Structures are given as C-alpha cells and as structure tokens.
Amino acid sequence: MPLDKKQFLQAYRTMRTIRDFEYRVSDEFGKGNIPGFLHLYAGQEAIATGMCMNLDDDDYIVSTHRGHGHCIAKGGDVGDMMKEIMAKQGGSCAGKGGSMHIAAVEKGMLGANAIVGGGPPLIVGAALSAKTLGTDRVGVSFTGDGGSNQGTTFEAMNLAVVLQLPAIFLFENNGYGEGTAAGYAVGSRDIASRAAAFGMPALKVDGADIFAVYDTCKKAVKHCRGGKGPIAIEASITRFRGHFEGDAQAYRGADEVKRLMKEMDCLTIAGAQAIRKKLATRAQLNAIDRDVAAYIDESAKAALAAPGPDVSELLTDVYSSAY
Amino acid sequence: MPIKTYRQAINEAMAQEMRRDSTVIVIGEDVAGGAGCAGERDAYGGVMGVTKGLFPEFGESRVIDTPITESAIMGAAAGAAQTGLRPIAELMFMDFLGVCFDQIYNQAAKFRYMFGGKAQCPMVVRTMAGAGLRGGAQHSQNLTQMVTMVPGLKVVCPTNAYDAKGLLVSAIRDNDCVIFVEDKFLYDTSCEVPDELYTIPFGEANFLREGSDVTIVGISNTVHKAVAVADRLAAEGISCDVIDPRTTSPLDEEAIIESVETTGRLVVVDEMTPRCGIAADISSIVAEKAFGALRAPIRKVTAAHSPIPFAPALEDAWMPQESDIEAAVRSVLEYRR
Asked: How confident is the model at residue A255 (pLDDT cuts 50, 70, 90)?
C-alpha cells in the first residue's frame, strides 16, 4: 500500500520537522550557542522518514555522524535532542553524547556514530538479538556512500548474509564523503550492486521522492520480517549543507548546491506530488509548516534557557556499578 | 572437591551460565567448527577446545560459528548486548584486537556513557594471550594494557582454574563489556573447582604468598613465575608477598599499596612491552600513593621493547623469566641509598 492521506501528512510533518530542526541548529551554531561539530541532514529527510514510517518503536536503527534526522524520524524527543546538541541539562544523552552521538535508545534508535562504518556491525547484533530471541523485529543501518567503503560494512553485510539476519543496509548516497566525490571513492560506482555481491537483494531508489522511498522500504521491511535474511537499499540524494557546518564546500561546482536545492528538495517534490494526487491541499501543508516552525522555535528556546549539565555528573555512567 | 583444568573451568562456567540464562550466547570463529563441512560439527570447539561441547547442548542459535571477521563478531556482540542478549564473543588471539578494536573501544565501551546511561553493553570478550609457544609476532602478544586503559571496559586476567570459573561467571553477569584474557599457557593447569556456580568479584586481589621483605605483583602467567621465585627465595630466608590482582580494571590498588607499606619494596612483572604496560601503570600508582613507604626504587620486570621474535632462543630472551624476577628481587633488597 502506498502512502495514504493520513500517512502522507505524517511523513510531510516529519520531513519538515527535520528540515526546520537542522536549519535552527545551524542558526544557533552560527550564533555560538552550540559547541563542537555539526553534520546536518538537510536535503536527505525523505530517506529517514520513509524508512522509519515502516518501522515500529521496538525495531532498531543505527545511524551515522549525520544522525539528527534518523533520530527524529524514529521518534526521538525533539526538545531533548535540542538540549543535547546545545549541551544543556535534560539532553537525550545527559550532555555526554552531543550531535554526533544523538540517540533515542528507548525508541530503538541505538545511536549516531562518529566512526564512519561503525554502525553496520552493530545492527547485525541487533538483528541477531531479534532472530535469537524470536521477535519479529528488524534492524536498519543507515550508512553513507563513505561508509560503504569501510571494511566494517563489508564484514557486517557478509555476516548478516551468512547468519540470515533481519538487517537492512540502507545506503544514503549523497554524492560526497567529506570533500571527495562518491564517483571517485566508490570503486564499483554503484553501491547496490556491491551489496548484492554479498548475496542479498539490493534495491535502488530516488531518495528525494518520499513516495518511492516509502514503498521501497516497505518491501525491504517485509522481506526481513518474513525471515528472508538481509537486504540493501541505495538511495540517491544530495546534501544541502557541507560535510560539517562551516564547510565552505569549495569542492562543489558553481551553483551546484543552489541548483540541487531547487531540483531535489524532497519537501517541494512531496508537496507538489501530494497536491496532484489529492493527498493534501496547499493549505494543509502550510498549516503543518506553521505548526512545525512554532514547535521547533519552542524547543530551541527551551534548550537555550536550560542550565548546563552539573559537572558532578562527569564520572556517572562510565560503568553500570561502582568501580 | 573435583580437580579441573583451566580449560574445563572456563567451559563449565559458560555451560552453566547458558543453562541458567537463555540470553547468554557464544559467538566466534570455530567456536563449534565444521559449519558447512562434510565432516563433524563441533570439530574444534574453539581453536584450543575451550567451547567444546557447547554446540551439541545449545545448538546453532546459541553457539554461533562465524566467518573470520573479527570486526563483525565484536560489533554483532556489542549490538546484541545493547538489545537483549548477553554474548560471549571469542577473539581467538588477543593479537587480533588490531582488526576489531574500534567495535570494542569506540562502540561497546562507550554506549552507556555516550548515551547518557540509557544503554548498556553486557558482553564478554574471551581472548587468548601469552608468548612462549613460538607463535611469532602476531599470535603471541598479551595486550592487556591496551584494553585496561579504556574507560568503560573491565579487564580480567585469571591465573588458575578456580579463579577462571568464578571470574567468568561474574563477567557474564556483569552489565558492562568485560575483556576476559585467558593465558594460553594455563589451559592444562588444574586445581580444585567446585561443581556449583560461584562468583568472584572484580577488583579483589589474591595473595598467593605472604611475606614481609618484598612485594611481587604478577599479571597472568607471570604470577606463577613470581610464586616459583618466592618459594625458592624463602629457603634463603627472603619472604615475599606475591599478589595476583586478578583484574586490571578495576585494579585492587589498596591491596598492592598495603603490601608495599609493609615491605617497602616492589617488583612488578608482566609479559608486555615495558612502556605503558600494566607493570608501568602499577609502578606509577605506587610511586604516587606510597612513595614514603618505598625503601628502594620500584623494579619492573617486563618483556623487551620489540615485536615478539619466533626463534625459541630469541623468544625466551624476549620474555620475562624467573631469573629476571629473582635478580630484580635481589636488587631491591640490596639497594642502599
């Protein structure tokens, strides 16, 4: 079943929430309100959204260093995330994770990962738990084109095939691993065929098209829940921002970002398609936009006003018990 | 009480814990062996036979043979530990830490802290260390120091069958990632080991000999060399405290410091390279916390600062030997300001 009216509006709201969240943290970073590094998901929203709409709360995902979108799509609390990224009390990870380790463990979002290729072996473990414990849960590893070149990813794909685990390897090919083009760095050019070579089905999808992403992910989840072993998806997309905030992106072509933001904006594409398919009206979409804008503003203001963490927490949670 | 080998004690701890708790699994290379082969399953039971017999009892869903893929084994164990299982992952030789260390020190060790206490990683990495088998530079190392330095990991180095069983049961029940370093020289050593389950807490040193002249601390197999030296010197009227910390993280600093406060002399032995090893670490702790009690400079007895050579004569020269320990003990006794 493709996205219906209600599901579409939910998808649109999630994508808009991610976009506004990312632009707001970008602004706050610019104002000096966020320490550290930020890697933003703006432009890629349809992928996390289309996948996570096919998952339940008790399914698992692991993410990348560009993880805010995955966390929001999996149901992470936006207010707590904002606080975490601003290093404030009440943050999702108690101020010990930050942007690159954003997580919502209670929602099955097992963590963003600042090691490129760090996540795929972990999702094999989550899928192993599902199989061993006899649940029908699935695990999804979000990985980039950069992560697709790491040995850990190859090992994870192979082991998932050998053990026939319910794992989905979702590759978001945004065209760049830091400042190097995927066309240069991905030797096989095509990530899907590389995944297929490990012995699993691999699908390709336009990552800017929420309808297509949703349908493709639905197939993948059904495959895994049906006990047919792992599956891969390669979603082509672009990122609207640099590798990190502050990246001048000198490696990108003149007007490339401007053009892609016009041609590949998942929100614009989704809106136009939905109106054409009569799944939504412009007024409905505008109402969601206003709603989300207010929600993000409120979350950001609450985070800005929150106190910083108590330094007495420095040594808590290194271990499970007294050390 | 029945006599069991170190190998049997470790096997028994796993089997009994797997019977008690269905979430405990074993995963690694050839932990059964024979997967996809024409011959027998459980053909290996681990390369040293430590997991032998688990496969027939618990089956392939809980005794999981993997390809040779250490990163994926460690990552799968860490991900499984985060989602409801208590995996015992086998890292065949500790030397292989190099190909999977990210999944241990950047992932498993950090989940709890990095995610604000909301995640946990109850996994055990069983691994085999120790030189002297002519295994060469990549099948012989004891890299206990590399895991001991990582916050979030606990590190256990059992030196006899009784301790091995009790410490492994504790490790399996622990909610953190525990690195369990088995010394390959000890698999066939034996002692009394109860049939029933018992635990030995981490961070509690064992005094193998008690004496008042010199404190000797040994890690893994070197503790047995220390005991042999202490027994020999006892005949000359030299009495040594021989301490086996049993776990390097947490470390029973108190036991070591208390002993040094009595003896005033410390010899620390390990089979690691001399820089930044466990002997170096314990020396620094004692220098910092018991300086006033020292009557002689601390002596470290370690391996040489080189890769482990293959030729028996070279490897023997590389390893800390009883004669090195004895010379160190005599030197701290003879020291005069």
From this structure: very high
Is B139 a catalytic site residue?
yes
Burial class (CB in 10 A: 0-12, 13-18, 19+), B228: middle
What is the predicted pLDDT for the residue at B297? 98
* Per-residue pLDDT reduced to its tens digit, A206-222: 999 999 999 999 999 99
Give the Å distances, CA to CA, from B61 to A163, B26, B30: 10, 9, 14
pLDDT in tens, A91-145: 999 999 999 999 999 999 999 999 999 999 999 999 999 999 999 999 999 999 9
Query: Strand B86-93 relative to strand B124-129: parallel, antiparallel, unpaired?
Result: parallel
Q: Note whether residue A127 is domain-resident.
A: yes
Q: Assess whether B108 and B20 both reside in one domain.
A: yes
Does residue A189 surpass a pLDDT of 80?
A: no
Closest partner CB to B80 (pick from A93, A128, A151): A128
Kindly state whether A62 is in contact with chain B, defined as any CB-CB distance less than 8 angstroms.
Answer: yes
Q: Which of B192, B219, B247 is the last residue of a domain?
A: B192
Determine, yes or no, domain membership for A313.
no
CB contacts under 8 A, A 276-295 vs B, are: none
Tell me which residue range forms the domain holding B237: 206-334
What's the gap in Å between the CA of B233 and the closest CA on chain A? 36
B window 41-100, beta carbon within 8 A of A:
61-62, 64, 66-67, 69, 71-85, 87
Q: Which residue has the tokens 């060399």?
A: B225
CB-CB contact of A285 with A12 (8 Å): yes
Output the domain CATH number for residue B76.
3.40.50.970
How much is the ipTM here? 0.96
From residue A181, give the alpha-carbon distance in Å to each of A1, A177, A207, A246.
Answer: 36, 6, 18, 19
Residue A239 predicted with pLDDT over 80: yes
Do residue B133 and residue B237 come from a single domain? no
Do B81 and B54 lie in a common domain? yes
Phi and psi, residue A64, nearest 5°: -110, -170
- A111 contact residues in B (CB cutoff 8 A): 111, 114-115, 119
B32, B149: one domain = yes
**Average pLDDT, 10 consecutive residues per value, chain B (337 residues):** 97 98 98 96 96 98 98 98 98 98 98 97 98 96 98 98 98 98 97 98 98 98 98 97 98 98 98 97 98 98 98 98 98 95
Name the 3-class secondary structure at A206. strand
Chain A residues in contact with B80 (beta carbon < 8 A) = 125-126, 128-129, 132
Q: What is the pLDDT of residue A322?
A: 86
Which residues from chain A sit within 8 angstroms of residue B116, using beta carbons?
Answer: 91-97, 103, 317
Residue partners of B236: CB distance under 8 A and separation at least 6 = none
CB-closest option in B72, B115, B152 to A101: B115
Q: Which residues of A touch B175 (CB under 8 A)?
A: 320-321
* CATH code at position A209: 3.40.50.970
